[in-house]
Amino acid sequence: MAQRTFWKGYLKLSLVTCPVELMPATTDSAKVRFHVVNRATGNRIQSRYVDAVTGKPVAEEDEVKGYPRGENDYVTLEDEELEAVALESTRTIDIDKFVARDSIEWIWFDTPHFLLPGDKMGEEAFSVIRDAMKAAGMVGIARLVLYRRERAVLLEPRGKGIVLWTLHYGDEVRDQKATLSKGMEEKPDPKLAQLVETLIKERSKPWSADMVQDPVQDMLTDIIAAKQKGTKRAKAKAPAEKPGNVVNLMDALRKSLGGSPKR
After folding, report:
1. Which of 165, 199, 208, 211 can pair with 154 through a Cys bridge, CB separation 3.0 to 4.6 Å?
2. What is the CATH number of domain 7-27+85-171?
3. For the segment 81-101, what is each residue's pLDDT rounded down to a tens digit?
4. pTM for the full predicted model
């Protein structure tokens, strides 16, 4: 399936500007999706907004965004007021600073996109910006309105294009050092560590996209295909047994490696 461009605008660095196109680097189009239907009629069920107190449907023109300031008390904002805070970054990716790629930790990265030149005329300017970042080992930081919100974005040269990552907001990222440093002060037994290292080596394989396939999607597709053909519905698998408590870690590791606990 051809990649779909969902945003067009301009990449800007100081006085250098070129048209660009943005497309998601991931897709969920292959996922099995369902509609909610009325079992009695087979008709699709519609979702409608209703007043939480009166229970009556609300007309679209009466729907307005509200910010809660107390119980059943809201500050309402009209569409015109929300549009008034629209920013210039709606159609321009203006790189205003650069940072070392290694200085940004994984936790800040949100959603990846592919950024490519928008036309032949802009390829030279695009290539100059891309190659200069690659040579310097730096990534660009800019702001862009995506998904109805202004977001900080990171531009990383990759191949002949640029990968644009949306970044999490500062208040969305928790302090990982405080969380991941709790406890765990006792060092593991070197013999246990050696067994785990051996287990890791035995199970090491080259990366493949097959490792992240979704078996649930395959099973759902099989069930749907069987029902369309009128065949019997596949029986649900019995739930997997819960792992028991590990009584002896050394024995468990030896069993994992195919050895005898007595050895």
Report:
1. 165
2. 2.40.290.10
3. 776 666 655 789 999 899 999
4. 0.69
